[in-house]
Fold this sequence. Notes:
By secondary structure, chain B is α/β, with parallel strands linked by helices. Chain B has six helices and nine strands, in the order βββαβββαααβαβαβ. Helix content of chain B is 28%, strand content 25%. With 274 residues, chain C is an all-alpha fold. Chain C contains ten helices and no strands.
Amino acid sequence: MTVNTLEVKNLSLAFSMYDKGFVRRELKVISNLNISVSEGEILAVAGSSGSGKSLLAHAILGILPNNAVISGEMLWYGEPLTLKHQRKMRGRELTLVPQSVTYLDPLIRVGRQVSRNKATVHKLFDRYHLDGGVARQFPHELSGGMSRRVLISAATSGNPKLVIADEPTPGLSLHLAEHAMKHFRELADNGAAVLLITHDLELAIRFADRVAVFYAGTTVETANASDFADENALRHPYSRALWRAMPQNKFAPTAGTQPYAGRLPDGCLYAPRCALCTPECKAAPPESRIIRGGEVSCYHAD
Amino acid sequence: MRIEARNIVFGYDKSHNILDGVSLAVQSGERVALVGPSGCGKSTLSQILAGNLRPKSGTVFFDDKPLPERGFCPVQLIYQHPEKAINPRWKLGKTLTEAWDPDDDFLSALGIEKAWLNRYPAELSGGEMQRFCIARVLSPQTKFIIADEVSTMLDVVTQAQIWDVLLRVAKERNIGLLAVTHSVELAARICPRLVEFASL
Amino acid sequence: MSKLNRRTVAAVTASAILIIIIAVYVGGALLPNSALEADFSQKGQPPSFAHIFGTDFLGRDMFVRTVKGLSISLVVGAAASVIASIIALVVGVTAAMGRGWVDHAVNWFIDVFMSVPHTVLIILISIALSRGVIGLLIGVAATHWVTLARIIRGEVLQIRSQSYIAASRRFGKSPLFIARNHILPHMIPQFFVGLILLFPHAIMHESGLTFLGFGMPPEQPAVGIILSEAMKYISTGAIWLAFFPGLSLVILVLLIDKLGNTLRFLFDPKEAQL
């Protein structure tokens, strides 16, 4: 078995917040999250927006705010990923493709922000079919599709080992979204590991190799993208609920809502909505297990 | 009753128009999906139909009269980002009753839990907030709903829940619905009539 | 931000300021006025247990003079910043709600005020109003509303463009309802932070102007007067005459500024939890 570029084991993340006055309490936003991604692979983390997916990216990059309390393990090629590591690799081996051009400095020409080396800029722009003149433009002059390509080229200028793409497609037409995804595939084919964070399950299924289903701050299942073709190939009750709810499948809703950070149940986070729920589900969260080639956190999966 | 946009022209600068002579009509009780890629001007048209934006030229007619500028608007818009359509400093109970006073049965039909009424928007998820946005526009005075990508930012389970509710109420009350979406699969599920934005 | 969290900083600075204010007023009332009178037997003494800030060349106790001076400075500072921030609120909200020519007119006015160095303007206003407390008050208030007005205008414009305002309008809510229920509650924190941050400015201007001889009349023991008198004696080595009153003023001003800035972050939803 090849070594994973990045492996995240039982990651939990809480923010220490004020309630009223001086009382502090911990608000858990990520609990017992497990993912792994290896060279040449696109792993999608799919979940509804505002559920803490972006915080996963921030945790991997080491750019969480001061009041974040983190536990669990993050391994980089099998070695613990420390803050010192993250600081050294950030922007080089470990890069982020942000959501929009607002992450670029509006007052500096695009070319210089991609790389200081003109030859590198030229090479990258060539690869992403950007006109040479784009390098002399300012961020606000770029169209949606162009800015996406600029952001990708900026993230790939240092031959990254891991590229994290945080919601790379909203605001893009289907055509441009497909283009953007092709670029990520190219990156993976050149040996990078790609972590795609998205709220768009369809996009994840279409372009990723594996899909981690994110629910209320945890990953309930990591399945091969092809498993989503068939409800029975999926392992977790929530993944199956997702499958049934997709417009191209049954468009059937499942009752209930995702628990909010700060009001999480003790046991399995999906237990309050789950048809298979038994007393053990409510007692303690299930460990992640491997079943039929996918990872799942459910007592009842088989 | 019907809502009709006639020859709408709109642009933020003088030289370039986002909408150039767009016309579209929806009958009460009808469900129409407006489909087009992101950034093509669907949201702008939604804003104009709901009376939030004034077109450069052209008029929106409600019942063959120009859309009223004052008072409760019979054409109501549901936004893509519920967190932006709700005052962050108000408890949700206040937000809910800003437009009208829904009863308990109605709230439970929409899947709104009583405990949420005492919370602030930051304490709810996008799907929960979107339910409030839907509930508050479904006043008895509302005759048409414009739903602008209302489920795009939600997970598919919540999307299915939201549309289940919205379609049910729209049918019961004979409300006309214009669903704006980039997803052809979703459009086909919720509306019998599909309109390509590019064809307008 | 250091390890000390902002709520603690805010609470500590607020209580320190409160204690100083109470001490200045209660103490000022209790301290004998006789200490303000000349007593040549005590003249020119360096700090000691009997006179912790020392005495001046008329034998007056510098501690008593500083306390009395600060009490005057506080009143003038508070009054000036309250007036200035109310002007700012009214002007800022009017500009943003009026839009069109009203907004242009107000902005032009703000630009004009900003283009004149405000120390010069305060001096001119103060002289025109025959010096004294009133002249100083109006001078400081009239020059210090502009920045806050601009901030409030920007904030109101930003809130006005929110979707929930558009929605409220479509529910048939009146502009007055929207201003009162949606916009004004957002402005309250901004307003109070602006007010508190104006306070040290106003005090410094009051003292500065008085020091230059344009502000308070010399018979009042304002801090500016004390400092200006002390300058004459500094070359004789009596640095305590300027040092302790000056230090008290600086500490008070810095405390208020710290409180204002801490509150600004606490009220900012993006920073509030850090």
